[in-house]
Amino acid sequence: MAYQCLNKERKIYFKKDSAKALSDITKLIFDFDGVLVQTSQSYRQTIRKIVDYYFLEILGLEGEKGRLATLEDIQKFKDTGLYNNDWNLSYAIITYYLAILMRKLQQKRILQDFSNQFNNIQFSEVHSFLQTLGEVGDFLRRYGINATELANMKNDSALGLESFLAQASIKNQNPFETTLAPILLKVGSDELTLIRRLVPYDFEKPDLLKRLFEESYLGKGLFNKFYGISSFFKFNESLLEKEAFIPTKKALDVLRLKFGKFAIYSEKPRVQGTYLLEKNDFKEYFDEKMSIFLEDLVKSEVGGEGVRLGKPDPALFIELIEKLVGKGSWVAYVGDVVADALLVENARLEGLSNLLFLGVLCSSHYPNNLLSQYIKHEAAAIMTDVNDIPDLLTSLGGKI
Questions:
Q1: Which domain holds residue 85?
Q2: Tens digit of each residue's pLDDT (9 = 90 or more) over 299-346
Q3: In a domain, 8, yes or no
């Protein structure tokens, strides 16, 4: 498939056989994180922060901050298309290392002792659960297990991250067991259950992972404001407050004249998205009734445990597009990760032929790799950020 470059400096490309459809777009839908706001210093740093906090602070294992989850590691997870939601991604990284930890306990012939002592661990509330995890850490340190050794394992030829992520399949609705299987090959389902108990994670109920992530990301002030409860971990800094808006008002004004108000399809909590739109005076550009956020996806849960209509599942996305334009006019979705490209790809496979994907590169620390992924998934156009959309459409003869 042939792509033409319109601007090398801004990395603006379009797929030649999509030129006519691009010029005929009537509506735009935006992802939020990485498209409307820059999250490289917020969400991705939160992932790194809470993985470190779990192993170095809560369990108290010896190790160096920043090694367990690097930005490159996070991008590798994103590139599978399975981990668009950063709660899921954080959970996946922590459970990967817990599986490695189980393997090491087995090698030291103390796995049974560990299981006997902690197999009945249950989350009820944060304070008492952290005390129990402190006992878990005492056990591990007593037998010389440390976070440095865990971090080194991600480069292992058999058990490393490359092998772990190779097990992930976008067709697998619940990849947890699949991806951990090679690591737990000689362990078993009991240890898989114990891993889940060591890092409780539930979309709808109180748990450790969401609580730690949200407090770290929001800071205690915004956490108290959004959730209506006092913070436990008392993180002072709010990383959400660092999220600068990417599109200029000039660019959005130009686009709104052609497309009207924009829709949003995002796994960001609605209250957080609304807060940023209001704070930056951008709310007027977006149609609240035609916008999907995390809460909408959770309410539309289907399937078994842990299955949500998040990206790249297209069910709610298709409903949104049919409300916006029906099945006739062209609509474009602007995204920043592989899961966004797959979302569009899956919607088209479901028969939504009037849909295009526009991929932006600005959120990735490895834009050239992401560019290759977008081309692989037949993005209609690729650009640095949303401010390039007017130039793209003008170059193709569209009226702006």
A1: 43-227
A2: 654 333 444 558 899 999 999 999 999 778 999 999 999 999 999 999
A3: yes
